[in-house]
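We were asked to recover a plausible sequence for a given structure. The inputs and outputs are reproduced exactly as logged, with field labels preserved.

PROBLEM: sequence recovery
POSITIONS: 413
GIVEN STRUCTURE:
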């Protein structure tokens, strides 16, 4: 990976569309996504499936578009935010992104450790959650530290293996269920459909503030866009559907007990560990890149190491019962923020930007900041008073339109 936040030289942009397909497929194959799918059980099978498909279409599109900012310019995600918000605005976004990614790192490590502990208790009668947290954190940090050539092959091997093993996991859920039984599964209605849709959109949107950290290494933008879109869409939708089916058929979204009941403990152990590594290293590396946007004089690998250690420590105290609230918080902050960024780049600038402007340009754009706040207010209003409509898309659209309307009203500071 590049050692600083300067644009990646053209000769180092060597990732293909298939590389991005594998990268984002690996990010999506995760126990956390299965659990998130289980949260949709109150919608029932049909309502849950609609929310999963539509939510991923809505969430994946800005995710892949956000990657185009990186593949066009070769700059990291938080540097690309400077075009709309200015350097000071990007610092605020970076600080929030560091908090988000530290939280995601902790969540992934916690889920991994708890799942592994459940497995080892059954297989060997051994329990030590803190030890599994340390192992998951250390290997995920190592994954984030390796260079691009080694990472590409590690990711390919791991994701291919995970996909095969997840087929077994899916089979374990469906092999005793008839089509008639599937169609008759109903939810209890305790979750509004719009709120469920937002829970789906929040997952791909949570990756938006870091997608350019990887797309900046793309050979060209078109293949990076479609590799990102399809890789995440297929795998994440699969995981959500799996979680939904588990929750409706067994009353829980955790696939581990099902696999243990089928004596697939070793397979479950491999899935849990490697799905954590292929997902969490993205959070760790991008957390370091956000830090470097604030303090570019530090060394990339040193900050990556410290971020991985920090996320591991945070895992020891993170309240897992606030996971759903954490997803809503992410949506509220980053959906309107990147509504501004994407509308600025694709509609206002029409994909034309001077790279020098990102490093020597405006300090703060008041119009962008106002638009971000406006989009956040729309998100809160819809979430609290119109939850059946969903809050994510209205917030994204509102912040972008407000931003375009401010272009002649505000002068840059």
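RECOVERED SEQUENCE:
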């Amino acid at each position: 990976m590049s050692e600083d936040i300067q644009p990646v030289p053209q000769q180092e942009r060597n990732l293909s569309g298939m590389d991005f397909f594998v990268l984002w497929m690996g990010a999506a194959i995760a126990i956390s996504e299965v659990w998130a799918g289980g949260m949709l059980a109150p919608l029932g099978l049909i309502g849950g499936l609609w929310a999963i498909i539509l939510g991923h279409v809505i969430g994946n599109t800005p995710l892949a578009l956000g990657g185009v900012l990186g593949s066009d310019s070769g700059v990291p995600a938080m540097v690309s935010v400077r075009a709309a918000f200015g350097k000071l605005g990007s610092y605020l976004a970076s600080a929030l992104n560091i908090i988000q990614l530290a939280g995601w790192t902790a969540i992934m490590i916690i889920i991994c450790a708890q799942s592994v502990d459940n497995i080892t208790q059954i297989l060997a009668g051994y329990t030590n959650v803190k030890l599994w947290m340390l192992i998951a954190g250390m290997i995920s940090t190592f994954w984030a530290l390796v260079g691009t050539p080694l990472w590409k092959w590690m990711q390919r091997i791991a994701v291919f293996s995970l996909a095969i093993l997840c087929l077994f996991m899916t089979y374990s859920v469906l092999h005793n269920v008839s089509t008639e039984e599937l169609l008759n599964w109903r939810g209890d209605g305790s979750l509004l459909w719009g709120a469920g849709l937002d829970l789906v959109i929040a997952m791909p949107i949570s990756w938006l503030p870091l997608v350019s950290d990887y797309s900046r290494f793309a050979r060209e933008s078109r293949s990076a866009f479609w590799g990102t879109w399809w890789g995440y869409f297929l795998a994440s939708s699969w995981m959500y559907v799996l979680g939904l089916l588990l929750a409706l058929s067994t009353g829980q979204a955790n696939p581990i007990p099902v696999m243990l009941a089928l004596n697939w403990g070793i397979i479950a152990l491999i899935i849990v560990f490697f799905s954590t590594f292929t997902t969490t290293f993205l959070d760790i590396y991008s957390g370091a890149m956000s830090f470097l946007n604030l303090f570019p004089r530090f060394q990339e690998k040193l900050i990556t190491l410290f971020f991985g250690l920090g996320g591991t420590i945070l895992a020891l105290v993170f309240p897992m019962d606030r996971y759903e609230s954490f997803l809503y918080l992410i949506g509220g902050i980053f959906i309107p923020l990147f509504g501004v960024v994407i509308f600025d780049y694709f509609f206002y600038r029409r994909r034309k930007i001077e790279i020098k402007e990102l490093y020597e340009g405006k300090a703060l754009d008041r119009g962008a900041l106002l638009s971000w706040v406006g989009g956040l207010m729309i998100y809160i209003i819809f979430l609290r008073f119109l939850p059946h409509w969903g809050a994510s898309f209205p917030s994204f659209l509102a912040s972008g339109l407000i931003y375009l309307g401010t272009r002649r009203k505000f002068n840059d500071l």
